[in-house]
TrEMBL record:
Family per similarity comment: Belongs to the gluconeogenesis factor family.
Subcellular location: Cytoplasm
Protein name: Putative gluconeogenesis factor
GO biological process, one term: regulation of cell shape
Transmembrane parts of this sequence: 16-37, 57-81
Main subcellular location: cytoplasm
Record SUPFAM superfamilies: CofD-like
Gene3D superfamilies in the record: CofD-like domains
GO molecular function: LPPG:FO 2-phospho-L-lactate transferase activity
An example Gene Ontology CC term for this record: cytoplasm
Function (record text): Required for morphogenesis under gluconeogenic growth conditions.
Alphabetic keyword roster: Cytoplasm, Membrane, Transmembrane, Transmembrane helix
């Protein structure tokens, strides 16, 4: 029965119902003392007479049954009264969802008990993961790169001297628990030939909120209220950083958006200025996490910039949380051409240090030949799982079906969240890494 969900464990309702019942009992006793207990005796005599007239004798069992029956009626009246009281309040606050109140509370209580997960990265891959995780736990924090210098984010960054809002916007929308229209509004991109062309409303909103509040963290907090965000979103730093890459041929490419366009093999990425302060909330989220997730997303331009911010890499390495890297399904032209899974992991270890990755989560669902041919024309190929090489890095790995294969290949948010939660509850960090595969 729908109503009995109020009595489910963790709802924090039974304790107040018991307290209400105790209050009713004490009130009854008090009134009995005030008005003289003889009235109770009179009622009891009345019950005895009725019982005698029916069965022809004084039967205490019948009296007890009557007593329990009256108590049951009293409890039922209490429950109905409480339900109607709550309903009368909620119909004002949530007129369209009053019937779903118990489901909303139950879901929130359950999600509040989920593990604390901190996700580090950027780009569309991060928002895909967050969409799935918000259905498994409310304790999700996204630590987002601020190295983006292209598109609407890049323009706002230069015009208003703020950190790029694009990835932050995507994360807020991914974690939002709001009406679809609001999500469409935040993702809406202006068209035409005006100065607004190419800007998304969400980027402009965050930029305006930053100007109004004078602080990007406050701006994100206020934006989170508008979108009813489950979880938190923080930038890795509030500094205006520039991402550069040193290639294997010794050349240096400046700017996050220009690195893939060079079509050269990346040796290492670095930021300018080379020392920037992190956002304290981001560091605390990493410290408090039960699970730390890296990616999915562009290896060098979405994940790595976070580790180049002061204290981030050290905090991750010192954490006792399970550290999981979600490897990309396909290689990325100009960034990870011909990369295997172990090469992705090795790059992270070289930038962040040993201890930054415990396990790598990889897709093992076969990709159809037509789709492989389609992506080959774009210079993208499935990332090869080289198990022995991964093992040699001292990192464990989990293979699972992670993709949603339609017209394009990308991670499936529900499958990702399912496997992450399995790993969160089923794995522990230790010195001996083991291969695991979940069905």
């Amino acid at each position: 029965m729908h109503f009995f969900k109020w009595l489910y464990p963790g709802m924090k309702f039974k304790r107040w119902l018991s307290l209400f019942a105790a209050g009713v009992l004490l009130t009854s006793i008090g009134l009995t003392i005030v008005f003289n207990y003889k009235y109770i005796d009179g009622f009891e005599d009345f019950i005895f007479k009725i019982a005698y007239s029916i069965i022809g004798s004084y039967n205490y069992t019948v009296i007890n049954i009557v007593g329990f029956f009256i108590s049951a009626i009293g409890i039922l009246i209490m429950l109905v009264a409480m339900r109607m009281t709550i309903r009368s309040i909620i119909t004002v606050l949530l007129p369209d969802n009053s019937d779903k109140l118990v489901d909303l509370i139950y879901e929130k209580r359950k999600l509040d008990k989920g593990p604390a997960i901190t996700v580090i990265g950027g780009g569309t891959g991060l928002s895909v993961l967050l969409r799935g995780l918000k259905e498994a736990t409310n304790n999700v924090t996204a630590v987002v790169t601020v190295a983006d210098d292209g598109g609407s984010s890049g323009r706002l960054r230069h015009e208003f001297n703020i950190i790029p809002p694009g990835d932050l916007r995507n994360c807020l929308v991914a974690l939002a628990d709001t009406e679809p229209l609001m999500e469409k509004l935040f993702q809406y991109r202006f068209e035409g030939d005006s100065e607004l062309a190419g800007h998304s409303f969400g980027n402009l909103f965050i930029a305006a909120m930053t100007q109004v509040t004078g602080d990007v963290e406050k701006a994100l907090m206020e934006s989170s209220k508008v979108l009813a965000v489950r979880g938190r979103v923080f930038p890795a730093s509030t500094a205006k950083i520039k991402l550069n890459a040193t290639m294997t041929d010794g050349t240096i490419v400046e700017g996050e958006s220009q690195i893939p366009l060079a079509h050269k093999q990346i040796k290492r990425v670095h930021i300018s200025p080379n020392k920037v302060e992190p956002v304290a909330s981001s560091i605390n989220a990493i410290k408090d996490a039960n699970v730390i997730i890296l990616g999915p997303g562009s290896l060098y331009t979405s994940i790595m910039p976070n580790f180049l911010v002061d204290k981030v890499a050290d905090t991750v390495k010192k954490s006792k949380a399970i550290k999981i890297y979600i490897c990309n399904v396909m290689t990325q032209p100009g960034e990870t051409d011909k990369y295997t899974v172990s090469m992705h992991v090795k790059a992270i270890l070289e930038h962040a240090g040993v201890g930054s990755v415990d396990y790598v989560l990889v897709n093992d669902k076969p990709i159809s030949k037509p789709l492989q041919d389609f992506y080959a024309k774009k210079g993208q190929y499935p990332v090869i799982i080289d198990e022995d090489a991964i093992h040699d890095l001292g990192v464990g790995f989990v293979k699972a079906d992670l993709i949603n294969e339609t017209n394009v290949i990308h991670h499936d948010s529900e499958k990702l969240a399912h496997n992450i939660m399995q790993m969160a509850y089923g794995l522990k960090t230790d010195s001996k890494r083991k291969k695991r595969k979940f069905d």
